[in-house]
Design a protein that fits this description.
The chain is built from no helices and 24 strands. By secondary structure, it is mainly beta. The chain folds into 2 domains: 108 residues, Immunoglobulin-like (Sandwich); 198 residues, Jelly Rolls, CATH 2.60.120. Strand 8 and strand 9 form a beta hairpin. The radius of gyration is 24 Å and the shape is elongated.
Length: 321
């Protein structure tokens, strides 16, 4: 196609083709294209564009891989996608003459599903149930870590600070927490010995009677809270966090200990890691859900079979179907 004049000469568009999308995960994919001709002037931008409607353009979501000075195949990351959704993709290349698009391809993000290994989960009554894990191996500190859990809430704690999923804190404001409550709100909190930093979602982020994956990630002080692999809140850690001197608790905190989560809430998997995991990423447990049933072989798995201080929900049958 011939576009505007450049130095008195007409400018021809580049040519580009679109190949099949690859690397499809629950929230991302890789777009593939090929610049077959640069046109009379080199492209100033190229990449892929995508949409849930057919024939996407640069008015929709797109990537920009910068200028191109040679023909050839390229890849480009397609992100911010929604599970169980079909997307349409076209490669593009732009020069001063205009923008050329390749043919359209489509792909579908799979639905995010979860089946607990063995069908087991901890079930809390919201009154006096909690699990306590000894401090050894869990007293992490610094500016990077990950907390994650699969939960099935059937009722909400009245306030966000009441619904303790994973809590390790002490009276000196050290620790880390992953909490839910207040009609579906989620919070990831870190303490540095004098104050708390948090990433808190909107009310209604979670829903009742459904398995949902929670992950709080801090990477070099940047806090991100994820639900089912999607970012729902961000925050900034002040200084560095310290793990706190009290034991880690599921369903409780250092003051009230028990009953600090909604009645009937089940937890099939909880994990604490000293390193930040990347979400979305198909290799992470959160997006390729394979949580352990009763096993917890490492100190970082916070649901071992030999809880250091099991309480009511763990007296005779710690894992409830």
């Amino acid at each position: 196609m011939v576009g505007q004049l450049h130095g008195g000469e007409p400018v021809t568009d580049p040519s580009v083709s679109t190949q099949a999308v690859s690397g499809v995960s629950f929230l991302a994919a890789t777009g593939n294209g090929n610049i077959t001709s640069l046109g009379s002037l080199n492209p100033t931008a190229y990449g892929v564009c995508w949409s849930t409607a057919s024939t996407p353009t640069l008015a929709d979501s797109y990537t920009d891989e910068g200028a191109a000075n040679s023909t050839g195949a390229f890849t480009s990351a397609i992100t911010g996608l929604t599970p169980n959704t079909t997307y349409y993709v076209r490669a593009y290349a732009s020069n001063p003459g205009g923008t050329a698009y390749g043919s359209q391809v489509s792909f579908k993000i799979p639905a995010l599903t979860f089946t607990p290994h063995g069908g087991y989960a901890l079930e809390f009554d919201g009154v006096d149930d909690y699990v306590e894990i000894a401090d050894a191996g869990l007293n992490f500190s610094g500016t990077s870590m990950t907390l994650e859990a699969w939960i099935y809430p059937t009722a909400w704690a009245p306030n966000i600070y009441d619904g303790c999923v994973i809590v390790k804190e002490d009276l000196s404001h050290n620790g880390y927490m992953l909490r839910v409550g207040n009609s579906g709100q989620v919070q990831f909190t870190l303490g540095n010995g004098s104050n708390w930093s948090d990433a808190t979602s909107d009310v209604g982020t979670l829903t009742l009677n459904k398995w949902q994956h929670l992950a709080g990630v801090v990477n070099a002080g940047n806090m991100t809270l994820y639900v089912d692999g999607r970012s729902v809140a961000t925050g900034t850690l002040t200084g560095s966090f310290a793990g706190g001197s009290d034991p880690l608790r599921l369903g409780g905190d250092y003051t009230f200990q028990a009953g600090r989560i909604g009645a009937g809430c089940s937890c099939a998997y909880a994990d604490v890691k000293a390193t930040p995991l990347r979400f979305p990423s198909p290799e992470n447990r959160g997006l390729s859900p394979t949580p352990p049933g009763r096993a917890g072989s490492s100190a970082a798995d916070v649901l071992p079979t030999d809880q250091s201080k099991p309480h009511e929900c763990c007296d005779t049958a710690p894992w409830q179907r």
